[in-house]
Amino acid sequence: MPAPRPIELNRAVPGGRVEIFAIRDEEYPDGWFYRFQYYHPETGELLRYDDAHDDDDLGWHHRHVRFGEDTKIEFHGLAAHVTRFLNEIARLAETGETEDINE
After folding, report:
1. Which letter does DSSP use for residue 43 in this model?
2. Cα angle vertex 20, ends 19, 24, to 5°?
3. CA–CA separation, 21 vs 35, rounded Å?
4. Per the CB 3.0–4.6 Å rule, which of 24, 49, 83, 93 could disulfide with 36?
């Protein structure tokens, strides 16, 4: 079987930049290693979703926000996760606030 190819996106959006990286990896829960970031080039990270490590309190899938608590998030497939991330970015760019949308 050929090696998996990553899904990558890096582009400017209102209020900053978005980087999306995901690759099939059966050693990670749900078969994906991923990190999605929304950041401002001058002031740094605003929002990140990742499964880089199994956090003792939050588990594998979690989100980091610049001004707030890291939280556990549910993973319902890669497409749903990317959609949720982009929707949260849209809200953040519009209102300047994030909220835990763990639904």
Report:
1. T
2. 150
3. 5
4. 49
